Amino acid sequence: MGKRVYFSYYHELDHDRVTRLREAGVVEGNVPVSRQDWKRITQGGGVAIEGWISAQLSGKSCIVVLIGTATAGRMWINHEVRKAWRQNRGVVGVYVHNLEDRHGNQSAKGANPFDEISIEGGIAMLSSIVKAYDPPHSASDDVYRYVIDHLEEWIEEAIAIRSTVPRERRYQPVTRSV
User: Fold this and answer.
1) What is the CATH number of the domain that holds 115?
2) What is the count of structural domains for the chain?
3) Residue 48 sits in which domain range?
4) So what's the pLDDT on residue 43?
5) Report field, pTM of the whole predicted structure over 0.90
6) Coil, strand, or helix at residue 49?
7) Which H helix or E strand runs over 64?
8) 106-122: per-residue pLDDT in tens?
9) Would you list the DSSP string of 69-135?
């Protein structure tokens, strides 16, 4: 438990799904933000959100993107990923669609958000480097245990991958325009 990480996820839809993961204590520097605090932050507008993200990424080794149904294409998630990548932090994704929300519901699997962020001036997508793990279970408790059992390993791997990316592939990623 030595790596400090930042969890990135779509707060509106996936807060309940990821709360249990965040509270598991597998990683350091992972202070959950309540729904009320997130609402207060977002009411401050883009500058407030950017400042909060910068403060949260400070001192972190890796960003873990918890991928739900609507994570891909979210402006602030893309911003967090680009910022972390630019700062040479590890980046990894974990699908959370099979985790239950507070009502016991699972959701549909979302798209890989790294498929929408390009590097090398648009020549390659971040997904060609960054891994996104989809736990091989459908029962929520099994998914939870699987992620908890493997999260540290995935974080270490993401940090190692980022540290070995050749210099020519270290350009700031840019979100692909459609």
Assistant:
1) 3.40.50.450
2) 1
3) 5-175
4) 87
5) no
6) helix
7) strand 62-67
8) 999 999 999 999 876 77
9) TT-TT-HHHHHHHHHHHHTT-EEEEEE-TTS--TTS---PPPPPGGGGEEEGGGTEEGGGTS-EE--
